[in-house]
Amino acid sequence: MKPVIALTMLFALAGCSAATTPTSASTAASSKPVPSSPHVFSATGPSHTALAVPAGAKSADISITCAGDDTTSISITVGTQDQPRSGRCPSSLRFRTAAHGTLELAVDFGSGTGRFVAQVRFSADAFTPDPRMAAQCTAASGAFSDVSSASNGYPNGTLDLAGWRALMASAGQKLTAIDDSGAVGTQLGALIDWYGGPDPTPARPTSAAAAQAFEIVNSLCLDNGTPLVILSQYGG
Question: What is the pTM of this model?
Answer without folding.
Answer: 0.77
